[in-house]
Structure formats: C-alpha cells, structure tokens
Amino acid sequence: MTTFEVGDITLREIREHVWEIPKEGDMRVPARVFASESLLEEIAEDKTIQQLRNATHLPGIKKYALCMPDGHQGYGFPVGGVAGIDAEDGCISPGAIGYDINCGIRMVKTNLTYDDLNGREEKLVDALFEAIPSGLGGGGVIEGDHGELDAALERGVEWCVEEGYAVESDQSHCEDNGFRADATPETVPQKAKDRGQNQMGSLGSGNHFLEVQRVADVFDEPIAEAYGLHADQVVILIHCGSRGLGHQLCTEYLREIEKAHSGLLAQLPDRELAAAPAGSQLAEDYYGAMCAAINFAWVNRQLITHRTRSVFEDVFGEPWEDLGMELLYDVAHNIAKKEVHDVDGEPTELYVHRKGATRAFPAGRPEVPDAYRNVGQPVIVPGSMGAGSYVLCGGENSLDVSFGSTAHGAGRLMSRTQAKREFWGEDVQDELRRRKVYVKAQSGATIAEEAPGVYKDVDEVVRVSDELGIARTVVRVEPICNIKG
C-alpha cells in the first residue's frame, strides 16, 4: 500500500511508517503520520487525520505537522500531535497543548523483586488507594494555602525539595529539573488557582493512575543498566497532570484569545486551534501561566511520590531510601516549550507543541540530565492496565524526524462513552484479578472506561517508534497493582 484515503485526504507513504499529506491549498506545511498500516487504519477511524491537516494552517508552523503512532482525535489538535512553531514570527495555541497541562508520567524504581510482593498485592493496592487522593473534585496530599500554591506554581519541584517532599535527585531526574523558570503565577486566573489549591497531590480521574509493575523484558542491557533497571525489578508509574487548575487556565485563555485575536481565528479551520501571535501580550501571559501550570503538575506528581514512599515504608517495614525508591525520570505530555531545532539548516527557536506526545532527546543534547546524557533521555510509554508498558530511550533520529518527540502511550481506540457501553467494570476487574493484576478505582465506570480493549496495541506503537529511530526500546514492564480515580 503506497497511498491511503481518509475522506477527501490522501496520504502517501514516503518511507516505511511515514505517511504524508502533501501541502496544498492554505496548508503552510505538509502533515505526517508515523504509523504502521494497522495503526494507520485505527487512527483513520476518527477525525485525527482531519485535525492534523487543520493544524498545518497555524501561522509560523515549520517543516510539518506530526502525528505520533498513538494518535487519536482530540479538541482541535489531535492527541499525539506535535508542531514546531516559530517563537518569533509564529504563534502559541492552547488547543495544541491541551486542557490537562503537563499531564505526564514518572517512574520510581525500587530494589524489590516480584517475589518480595508475592502475597502482599492486595494489602499494597488497598494501602495505596487509601493514601493517594483520587477521583473528581478536591482533596490532595496537602491542603495548601495561597502562599504555598503560588510557591509551587513559581518553583515546581524546587519548592518540594525546600519543603521536605522531595530530595535533590528527584529534581535532577525530572524533565527541565521539574522547574520552568518562565512561570508567572500572577497570570494564572484566580478561578484556576481556586480549583488547584486543594488538589495538590491527587491523581484525579479518567486515564490517570498509579501502577506498581515489574520489569518483564530487557531489550537493551547497557542502557537498562545506565537507567538502573533489571529483570524482575519492581517499579511504580505515576500518571497525572495539573488537575482543575490546568483545565480552567486553558479554558479561560482560549476564550480570551478567541476574542482578542479574532482575525487570526478567522484564518483557521477550527475554533479549538485559537492561537495568540508570538510577541503579543496574550501569548506572553499564556506562556507564563502555562509554565506555572507545568510546575504545578510536577509538584502534584512529586507529592504523590512522597505519599507512595510512605506507603511502601509501612507495607515493607523499611525506610524508602533502603527500598531504593529513586526517581528514574519524569516526562511531560501536554506542553509547549521554547526549544532550538534545525529548520532549513538554521538553528531556530520554536514553540514546540506536544499534545499527548513525549520529548525523546538523544544522547548529547544538553537538556538531558547529566546521569543519562551519554545514552539519551528516558522515555516512558504506558500501555493499558492489562498490557505492558515500556521504557524507551531518546532515538538518534528524533531531532531530525520529530522535533525530538515520540508517542506518549498506547492511544485510545474508543471513546469513554463507547467503552462504558461495551465493558462492565466489575467484569474487567475480575478478569484482571485472574491474571494477578489487582485494580482498585472509585467506580466500576472508571474501570470500564480504561479497560484494556479501549486502547491500541502498545507493542505496535513502540515497534514503530523504535524502527523510525525516534525512540529505542529498553525494557518492558507488566502491571501488578493499579489504582485509579
């Protein structure tokens, strides 16, 4: 197959796993989808391809609009979408970042093995569910006051270190050291702050989770060793974002941008792509507020890590330090950052928008932490709670091919509404228990929405990323315990 038709759009296979929509009409650049034929057929079942073509209309977009192998329909801009937009002459688009700003994932290592957990799975999942706030609404690990919230918005994980919720190695093993210096808490809407104040350290709902896993397969021994990963090791994934604060911030800035820059909006094929021109006051205000929300999300995941360490101390009767509960890495998914990339042979500062996509920088890039700079940035790609997840390494081709990006997960196959029609939460929970995967959630509906059958094949997503050279497969992990909102 060398072409693929989606409605009035024709994609051409320009090389293996790379499908291009040629530039035509008002498109400013071509669009590219990274997918095998089977993944492309799944991606084409919703409006992902149309949304990707729409994204090529954004002012200042460079090279091409991209869709990662886990792509699916989002609001205006597809989930799995990546766009590099000129930071001087282009724009910044909240819809191309997402409502859950810095929804992201981290992996915490331990020195425990699977045998150490044998017989304690139910005790552990119950203790985690009791200790980690989850679900809709308020409640967090801490009930911060206005001063604490502003400090978290301004300083991110640095604030957690100061307050005793983190150690310095936690900060140095986060993307950007868990801190965006461009954050301006004063540009965060008050209603967003009000929503976030009592949610500091909480999972929320939807696809957010905490999962205890074991390393099942090691594919690259030298990189796994550099990451401190080995077969049968117990690790923990924490996946959540900026909660109500990020959602409210995105909502309010989208409306402000629509009103203030209606002329630009009229040039775009979808209102959800509303963008503020680079250099405008709204662009500066939104970027500073978004960076503050990014910091908030890192604090959120760090506070959950702090509480998780306490649970493991109680269950296993040893200090978390003796259990080896060190942070491997924390990566952001919904984010835009100023990064320098090669465009037509010239280093160019871009707003790199990643919506449901993960940074995947290779060895040598200065943004990669010192501990991993010789091998490349860790990339964490979760599957469903019934399938494996992966740790990858930033690939040698990522900067040229994908603005240093890759997939952020398996990617949804069906909507939450459809999932609840097709799956019954208790049945999913029972089936997983038969496979020795222990799941606890606020409701059966949540489990149904996140049933394994709701997601694409994460093995195929990772295979495509690996074969494109944008991320290298290091280890695969399998679920043991999972808590959800």
From TrEMBL:
Annotated GMP binding sites: 207-211, 333-334, 382-385, 389, 408-411, 484
Superkingdom as given in the UniProt entry: Archaea
Co-factor(s): Mn(2+)
First-tier enzyme category under EC: ligase
Biological process according to GO: tRNA splicing, via endonucleolytic cleavage and ligation
UniProt: Mn(2+) 2 binding residues: H239, H333
A Pfam family per the record: RtcB
Keywords from the named record: GTP-binding, Ligase, Manganese, Metal-binding, Nucleotide-binding
Active-site residues, as the UniProt record annotates them: H408 (gmp-histidine intermediate)
Quaternary structure note: Monomer.
Protein name, UniProt field: tRNA-splicing ligase RtcB
Organism: Natronomonas salsuginis
Lineage: Archaea, Methanobacteriati, Methanobacteriota, Stenosarchaea group, Halobacteria
Gene that encodes the chain: rtcB
